[in-house]
Design brief:
By secondary structure, the protein is α+β, with helices and mostly antiparallel strands. The chain has one domain (25-150). It has helices at 2-23, 109-116, and strands at residues 26-35, 51-58, 63-68, 76-81, 90-96, 102-106, 121-126, 135-143, 149-150. The longest helix has 22 residues, at 2-23.
């Protein structure tokens, strides 16, 4: 009985190892955001700035991180959705710009599914550009097809 259990465990371990090797351990998916004022749903609040964000989504943990092409201490961001271009979505995450990787936190299963489908967007807000009238830009979060990264 113990020998049979050992054989079953070894077979299961071999299947899991083969599956991991077959995927190459590629667990992080890249996404790109081209934020532009032309994508803002409320055009009166659009800024005249463009930003690019590079996002990584860790599949096992569902953690989303990103870096932004430029920014300053007054630049706030929101992950919104699910929503298509020209639609408003609910806020999923919020924070302020910082140099280096920014954590948007852990997505729910439904949010992760919407992310993979390109239904989430990143909104940047410049609150102090005009204090009574903050400026914004927006970009859909789009997957980079066929690319995966190995988690460190």
């Amino acid at each position: 009985m113990k020998r049979m259990l050992l054989i079953v465990l070894l077979v299961v371990a071999g299947v899991i190892t083969a599956a991991a090797a077959g995927s190459g351990g590629k667990t992080r998916r890249p996404f790109i955001v081209l934020a532009h004022p032309g994508q803002v749903v409320q055009p009166t609040s659009a800024t005249d700035t463009n930003l690019t964000a590079f996002m990584l989504f860790d599949e096992p943990t569902r953690e989303l991180t990103f870096t932004v092409s430029e920014g300053d201490d007054e630049l706030a961001w929101q992950i919104m959705g699910p929503a298509g271009p020209g639609e408003l979505g609910a806020e999923i995450a919020f924070g302020v710009w910082s140099p280096g990787p920014i954590s948007a936190g852990t997505l729910s299963k439904a949010e992760a599914k919407a992310l993979r489908r390109g239904q989430l967007y990143l909104r940047f807000i410049q609150p102090s550009a005009i204090p009574e009238f903050p400026r914004a830009m927006r970009g859909q979060i789009l997957p980079v097809p066929g690319v995966r990264y190995t988690s460190p």
